[in-house]
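Exercise: predict the structure of this protein bound to guanosine-5'-triphosphate.
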Amino acid sequence: MPKAEIYILAGFLGTGKTTLLKELLTTEHEEGRKVAVLMNELGEISIDSDEIDDTVPLKELLGGCICCTLQDKLESQLQEILKLYQPDAIYIETTGAAHPVEVLDAVLSPLFADLIEMKGIVTTVDGTLWKERAAMPPQIQQLLLEQVRFADLIVVNKTDMLSDFEQGKLCMEIQSLNAAAPCILTSFSRIPAKKIRNLSVSAKEGAEAAHVHAGLGLSTFVYRFSARVSQSGFEDFLRGLPDGMFRIKGYIHFSHADYPDLFQYSYGTTLYMRECMNLPLNLVFIGHEIDWKEILQKLEQLEGRLPEQD
Ligand SMILES: Nc1nc2c(ncn2[C@@H]2O[C@H](COP(=O)(O)OP(=O)(O)OP(=O)(O)O)[C@@H](O)[C@H]2O)c(=O)[nH]1
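Solution:
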């Protein structure tokens, strides 16, 4: 079964995410692809959902942010979308307050990580707001920077309200923060569809692709264990992790245990919780500038598929 492509639409409040989503859905319809939308809103009522065509399967996550309070709900809704509609693509519109790393983390559930292909984070930037950002509280300024820094594609929007000089300056500032992501200057979120289709943050074909992309911002990798492994060997593996590894989560079956453990790793802290049934042994990784080929090799060694290196 082909994997469902996942696109995350990030960007601060009012920057043009819904406008972009509508543009993208129009193109998807013209191309006859099956798509679904997951809309996250901080408030209890979604205004943006009303703007989406009734024919598009849409799930709402209201009253919080998927990167903090609504993680479990997100998981069940994504699973339902995958099961009911088997879409070619799922667009997730985040709240303006969402942090890109946390959103990736929330979306990549080890339960269905092998059914989806994470295509990337598209961040919309409001050119007029960006110009004035120094007047905003420091936490908001930081969030705006991180949304740009970890994007795979940056849509600098509302250029109709900026002079040519301001557009040039803005573009240079954005590129100095994230030189790897293409930056498109536009108004009303109009972007060529192929720009978004070409995205890829997932490691494909045994981590080769991600290896090539190392250095292009955040990337993700899913490893599926086919055997039990030694816990001490796994802990050795953790001790050798590179600095840019932000997050690992998933199920791992240790040689001494009856059932797998749910394993969580977050910025160096680890947690194990024994499960009481068998679960897919997927381990999901999220990192920055990681050589996934090396990680793959180490995990294969751990499983005893390859001889240990001295
Ligand atoms: N002038 C101008 N207005 C724009 C442009 N793009 C979007 N808008 C308007 O800006 C407002 C916010 O756009 P949305 O697409 O709803 O932004 P959003 O990021 O989804 O907003 P939230 O869901 O509140 O975070 C709407 O009134 C849009 O019509 C643009 O390029 N130029």
